Amino acid sequence: MAISRQAAAPETREVALYDRLPDTRARCQICLWRCTINPGKLGVCRMRRNDKGTLNVLNYSSVSSMAVDPIEKKPLFHFFPATRVFSLGTWGCNFHCVHCQNWEIACVEQPEGSGRASQYLSPQAAVSLAGQNRCAGIAWTYNEPTIWFEYTLDSARLARQAGLYTVYVTNGYMTPEALDVIGPYLDAWRVDIKGFSDSAYRSLASVALWQEILIVAVRAQEKWSMHIEVVTNVIPGVNDDDEQLRGIAGWVSRSLGELTPWHVTRFYPQHNMMDKPPTPVATLERALNIGKEAGLRFVYVGNVPGHDGENTVCYNCGRLVISRQGYVSNLVGLRGSACKFCGVDLNMRVTTKKVTNTNAGNNGE
Fold first, then answer.
1. Residue scoring higher pLDDT (70 or 112)
2. Considering the chain, what is the average pLDDT of its residues?
3. Contacts of 17 by beta carbon, 8 Å cutoff, 6+ apart
4. Where in the chain is the domain with CATH 3.20.20.70?
5. What is the pLDDT of residue 354?
6. How much is the average pLDDT of 325-347?
7. Is the separation of the CB atoms in 200 and 237 below 8 Å?
8. How far apart are CA 126 and CA 95, in angstroms?
9. How far are the Cα atoms of 8, 105, 220, 270 from residue 109, in angstroms, in the given order?
């Protein structure tokens, strides 16, 4: 779908959370790298620069990608199913994943060198475009939304005023402090859990503090009542062993609740990981069974079109509730957030009003 764009007009804004340090250094407090940045230098994400002791974000309203998507594409299966969401991405990332599927926008130091044009879109214009295109909400996606935290914060506030839902499609590497700033304005936290070991996160993204991602996800749910769905892209020889899959499934069940959806998705060779084969479907089905054994009620198989693992089946009565073909959903058995056949709660978010999640377990890890 074609969307009218505004002329390029890059903006620089001061970072929302940072510490001024001696010798005009600055420490960013947006993501868990907590970069200490010298004057004239950039942080890990390449989008935050120290200008004589003031930390500025360079991509405040620079849009690399935007589209009207089905919410199922995020993937979110229990959050406003069958609605359309206005999706926006910018440049850069705080991870540098070897298997990144959006490396053209995420793995760049300067947008000008990417071969793609950067467009300016103010938060007000983004909310307006969402309404014009009959979208129920806005999602910050395609690359890591934390990278333009200040823009998403301003946009989320406006979206809330306009009655739109808001979604972060995230690697989860945000500080608790930043989460608490944007938490009142975010409805969904669709988080990647890339593995469950130091070696998996190190080999995929060169990240050490991966267990902090788990803590932040629980905080998003328990403190801010965000709807949570977890995605694991299952990669042969990296995170497809039973120990890691059981670790992820057990953590989701204990810490987020048994009704939290877990998507196990098929890997396809991308970017700097072209030597790996696509994930065998049998591996994904094994992961699905591991999730069920851990007590999860909703485990979905992704990137395998036509697989029965895309559908939502009521765990209580066994009836089909939502059938899916690709990104097209047919709501055959849903009444509000419950199964229309037996009335059991299915953890379906169908309103932006935040409520306490009674399915949350303890903090686990």
1. 70
2. 91
3. 28, 29, 30, 175, 177, 178, 181
4. 62-310
5. 58
6. 96
7. no
8. 26
9. 18, 9, 30, 19
